[in-house]
What does this fold into?
Amino acid sequence: MTRLFAAFCLTLLVATSHAHEFEAGKLLIVHPWARATAPGAPVAGVFVTLDNSAGDADRLVGGETAVAERLELHTMKMDNGVMKMRKVDAIDVPAKGTQKLAPGGLHIMLFGLKAPLKEGEQFPVTLQFEKAGKVPVKVKVEALGAAAPAHGN
It folds into this structure.
């Protein structure tokens, strides 16, 4: 019985060790990630899924991080056949829904990186929501050119 319990605990530990989620009330911030950057790169994008399936509508209105001079919210859209990035004031997080920030769409931009982002490392970001307030998260750095986080979220 003791071995069975130990095996169960080990399985639970391994299963939850890959979890990379943060909570702010009913808002779940799932796997914040960024791509590794080349030496000297001045900018980087941060991507995340905001799961609000149990809560009221909210808005991501900004944030801050010590790894860059400034953080902005952005969108990318096709305009006459050209992909253009534009700053937005806020990103809506619908009630009982999700909002995905991903490459090629809504995302967080970091300007004035103070050092390259290296694969396998993490860095702190504080996200600012209209209702949920300030939420500190850790952003995992994935491979240079990654299209999605390594674990598939």
